[in-house]
Design a protein that fits this description.
- This protein is an alpha/beta fold and 94 residues long.
- Helix content is 41%, strand content 29%.
- The chain is built from 3 helices and 4 strands; from the N terminus they run E-E-H-E-H-E-H.
- It has a 4-stranded mixed sheet with strand order 1-2-3-4, with helices on one face.
- Strand 2, helix 1 and strand 3 form a beta-alpha-beta unit.
Length: 94
């Protein structure tokens, strides 16, 4: 589920192959329209589809001249990003 609060796009529930496809285009619309922070604090489960979704949003936002930051990624997502060697291109909030 996506919730928008100003420049914050919050995701909740599982972010897996079963759900990522439904979120892809809705999220893309928001990340190309404005600089956004993607808040993952409500995400309960991830798999490689979550990583693919976020990478596609990052690419879309950059192509639109926007900035996207990922806030509060679940440890499992950080581990997957490291495993696939894409952790250095994830714009994680500090």
């Amino acid at each position: 589920m996506i919730r928008i609060d100003g420049p914050r796009l919050s995701l909740s529930g599982p972010l897996t192959v079963a759900t990522a496809g439904d979120l892809a285009s809705e999220g893309r619309e928001h990340v190309v329209a404005a600089d956004m922070v993607v808040d993952l604090s409500g995400v309960t489960q991830v798999d490689s589809a979550a990583l693919a979704l976020l990478l596609s949003w990052i690419r879309a936002s950059r192509n639109a001249g926007r900035r996207l930051t990922i806030d509060q990624p679940p440890p499992a997502l950080v581990s997957l990003a490291s495993l696939y060697d894409v952790d250095t291109i994830l714009p994680l909030a500090h």
